[in-house]
């Protein structure tokens, strides 16, 4: 894992104070533990049950449900961090009109390009193939005839019929063979471009040189799914990780469609999850799909998925295999917000070399947490609390520390600092 810098912490703080949400995924991967709180037990349960066991051999998917600002991205990014620690490759994506399960033709490339490996160095298609080649060389070096061993590994991979589509093995074989012989650079570059960006990224002539037929629009989605299944097998067999942790954020955005597009989306969801569960694809993958509560209305219209995600005993009641995780169960109360406030205080001190009065800020955290829990809005209290608390800590750093009243806390949550500016500050508590 990459170490973070002071600038990383400052950048994370600015995102938290502006939006009340985690920073971009790459930055969050480095600094998330600095303010993560309240979800450790759940992350540990998932890691023990699935990353250390079940998902090293087969697939499991869960829905992570919370309202806007309810900690979905935070949870997925924390799971991303843990997945890497457990020896899995990880892919984190935010869903949109162009990133969704109803468009596997493009989604495969997006997943592949977003993958990070546990070594903290390699990512994306090129990184995965580099890591596989390093491992092939390492394994071959321990034999009596390394060259013969490499040739055998490459032949076996190219002819492996366990992969869901020969397109994947053919293209990767071209790249790996060029790593070995270094006499086919042009085809290797074209194969890498195809895997990273799709068939549209190379010409018809270059496609013919690869020995790959042009995929029709009718076939595109199914081929994309098979490429995804092949990718997971490659990660385990040649790259040497345990499997893939697939994290899809804002999956409710996928459902902003209707008609045939919605049908394709639902069918794709069923195939992805159903085939893995039925053992048709014994693939090591843990998939977490985050969404707002309205996702359940969409699933209710598609019986196969509704039954798949039906939850008898919820995860938070001890059923670790439950198909749904309701984050509000661990992030809704006053005590959680107080703990979160304490961690954010530490982050502020660490990032900006500040020093606050611990007792005074404990009072302020408790008052703001109480005010946040009392509010009834469409935005979860957690996000409002984070923005307000970060703003108040910055305010105190620029002026001086003060004791927060409940009225002032409510004003902060409404986005106003008027009362703070008018009130008398505690001049005896300057922040170092």
Could you explain the architecture of this structure?
The chain has three domains: 36-118 and 241-331, 3-Layer(aba) Sandwich (Rossmann fold), CATH 3.40.50; 125-217, no CATH class; 334-422, no CATH class. 58% of the residues lie in helices and 6% in strands. The protein is built from 20 helices and five strands. The chain has helices spanning 6-19, 25-31, 40-51, 72-85, 104-114, 124-141, 146-158, 166-181, 185-197, 204-210, 217-239, 259-277, 295-299, 303-308, 328-331, 334-352, 358-374, 381-398, 406-413, 418-422; strands at residues 60-65, 89-94, 244-249, 285-291, 324-326. α5 runs parallel beside α11 (217-239). The two termini are 31 Å apart.
Annotation field: number of helices: 20
Low-confidence region ranges = 421-432
The tally of strands reads 5
- The shape is globular
């Amino acid at each position: 894992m990459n170490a973070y810098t002071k600038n990383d912490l400052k950048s994370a703080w600015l995102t938290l104070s502006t939006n009340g949400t985690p920073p971009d995924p790459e930055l969050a991967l480095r600094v998330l533990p600095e303010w993560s709180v309240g979800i450790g037990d759940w992350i540990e349960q998932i890691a023990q049950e699935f990353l250390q066991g079940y998902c090293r051999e087969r697939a499991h998917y869960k829905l992570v449900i919370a309202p806007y600002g309810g900690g979905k991205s935070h949870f997925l990014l924390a799971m991303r961090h843990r997945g890497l620690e457990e020896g899995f490759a990880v892919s984190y994506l935010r869903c949109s009109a162009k990133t969704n399960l109803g468009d596997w033709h493009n989604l495969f490339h997006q997943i592949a390009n977003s993958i990070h490996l546990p070594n903290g160095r390699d990512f994306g298609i090129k990184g995965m193939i580099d890591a596989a080649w390093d491992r092939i060389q390492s394994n071959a070096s321990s034999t009596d005839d390394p060259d013969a061993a490499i040739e055998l590994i490459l032949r076996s991979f190219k002819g492996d019929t366990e992969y869901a589509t020969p397109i994947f093995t053919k293209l990767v074989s071209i790249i790996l063979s060029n790593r070995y012989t270094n006499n086919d650079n042009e085809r290797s570059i074209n194969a890498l471009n195809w895997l990273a960006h799709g068939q549209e990224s190379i010409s018809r002539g270059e496609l013919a040189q690869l020995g790959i037929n042009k995929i029709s629009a009718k076939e595109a989605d199914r081929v994309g799914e098979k490429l995804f299944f092949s990718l997971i097998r490659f990660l385990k067999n040649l790259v040497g990780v345990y499997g893939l942790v697939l994290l899809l954020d804002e999956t409710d955005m996928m459902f902003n469609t209707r008609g045939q597009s919605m049908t394709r989306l639902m069918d794709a969801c069923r195939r992805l999850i159903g085939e893995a569960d039925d053992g048709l694809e014994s693939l090591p993958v843990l998939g977490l799909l985050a969404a707002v509560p309205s996702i359940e209305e969409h699933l209710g219209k598609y019986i196969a998925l509704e039954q798949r995600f039906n939850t008898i005993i919820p995860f938070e009641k001890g059923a670790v295999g439950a198909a749904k995780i309701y984050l509000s169960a661990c992030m809704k109360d006053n005590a959680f917000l107080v703990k979160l406030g304490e961690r954010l205080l530490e982050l502020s001190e660490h990032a900006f070399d500040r020093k606050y009065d611990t007792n005074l800020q404990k009072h302020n955290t408790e008052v703001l947490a109480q005010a946040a829990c009392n509010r009834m809005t469409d935005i979860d209290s957690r996000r409002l609390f984070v923005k307000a608390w970060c703003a108040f800590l910055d305010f105190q750093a620029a002026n001086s520390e003060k004791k927060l009243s409940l009225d002032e806390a409510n004003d902060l949550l409404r986005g106003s600092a008027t009362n703070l500016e008018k009130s008398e500050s505690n001049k005896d508590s300057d922040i170092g």
